[in-house]
Amino acid sequence: MREVLKNYINGHWEGGVTTGTSENPSDLSAPVADYARADARQAEAAIDAAHEAFASWSLSTPQRRADVLDAVGSELLARKDELGSLLAREEGKTLPEAVGEVARAGQIFKFFAGEALRIPGEKLASPRAGVEVEVTREPVGVVAVIAPWNFPFAIPAWKIAPALAYGNTVVFKPAELVAACGWALADIISRAGLPAGVFNLVMGSGRQVGRVLVENRGVDAITFTGSETTGHQVLQQAAARRAKVQLEMGGKNPLVVLADADLDRAVECAVQGAFYSTGQRCTASSRLVVEAGVHDAFVQKLRQRMRQLTVGHAEERGTDIGPVASAAQLDTNLSWLEIARAQGAEHVCGGELVERRTRGHFMAPALFLATPEQRAAREEIFGPIAVVLRANDYEHALALANDTPYGLCAGICTTSLKHATHFRRHAQAGMVMANLPTAGVDYHVPFGGRKASSYGPREQGRHAAEFFTTVKTAYVCA
């Protein structure tokens, strides 16, 4: 029998009311782990513990917080190969991508170890004689971290690390699909020297655990990454009790390819942005907006490059595209292929189920030629499916790029400094890439979007202080 991974509440490991199993999407005959599902009572106990621990942790020294975060970052970096293998098995990300994600999580913790020592403040002159004004940042309180399955180390890291750095306490709920990765991260944090209750892990369903984290008045702030539908529900429920909310909810990101672009480079940007990580990234470039002069040539080159991609077991050397993360997500992807065909999109290549030596959720990346009003060109798919839209010229390409309810990331491939500069200013997105894949951001800079993609302050970098702290203005009469 496999060991059952437990929840971590108030400094102790606890079982749950039921047990779940996380699968290996590369080999369905080899489950990854069994884990204990917490119930509402345990989620409430974790919140109570975090609330109790906040009084002392919020007043802890910056050095103590820095030491804890640095220790977590160091262990992640030291174990990146081992933990990357776990990530590849459980989520299906290729091994190089998985190892890179764990390393990024380690870098995030180390970055915020430094930020714990650099919490900003201001001292201002008052117009009143003998009065001093000081503006400081203080922790918000208990932070609920609700993380998705597609980046099970990096996304929790960029939420948990700043929360702790600025003196907050945390209740962390990972996605059930990647419970073992969430537990592994929690295990490292639990051994880093935190007082009991400062960090808590509760695994379980959104209906049980997630609902409590959103509705419980003991939670002061909620940081959520997931679907737009769930994000809106979180916002509505949290707003009713005036909790602070930060949402990242996806994208339908354009990659514009102009006639003057280096087509080989543009194709690589498209392949990496649209299909790596099996397209399961909110920053994936699933809308390829190509200027008419190079449209056909680009599509031909892209088709040829897609045929060179190897779909296979996430841990096997030479695999370019791992499996789809779950049976449910694979069914969603297949339904999108039918939707695209039914609405008249022209199928270029891909989309077939792929058989390998192990039974898994293997799917060849798919490409369609579409028109802007078709659903496949407007709605987030979250899989290895991309569409190409034809643009008459740069102005038309820019208009198509902005013609989306989302606004997370936008990219352009061009050798024109004029067009790259104009696009950077006029693309309606929180992040813009020129001659780079839309998917792939650094750990020390702000992450987030506009429109339906995001709500609240940015994640990552120094801008994380906007969400994880509250500002206090103090007056002193000398």
Automatic annotation (TrEMBL):
Pfam families: Aldedh. Belongs to the aldehyde dehydrogenase family. Homodimer. This is 4-(hydroxymethyl)benzenesulfonate dehydrogenase. Gene3D superfamilies: Aldehyde Dehydrogenase, Chain A, domain 1, Aldehyde Dehydrogenase, Chain A, domain 2. Residues 22-473 form the Aldehyde dehydrogenase domain. The active site is at E248. One of its GO terms (molecular function) is 4-(hydroxymethyl)benzenesulfonate dehydrogenase activity. InterPro entries: Ald_DH/histidinol_DH, Ald_DH_C, Ald_DH_CS_CYS, Ald_DH_CS_GLU, Ald_DH_N, Aldehyde_DH_dom. It catalyses: 4-(hydroxymethyl)benzenesulfonate + NAD(+) = 4-formylbenzenesulfonate + NADH + H(+). Its EC number is 1.1.1.257. Keywords: Oxidoreductase. The lineage of its organism: Bacteria, Pseudomonadati, Pseudomonadota, Betaproteobacteria, Burkholderiales. Involved in the toluene-4-sulfonate degradation pathway. Does not discriminate between the sulfonate and the carboxyl substituents and can also be involved in the p-toluenecarboxylate degradation pathway. It comes from Ramlibacter cellulosilyticus.
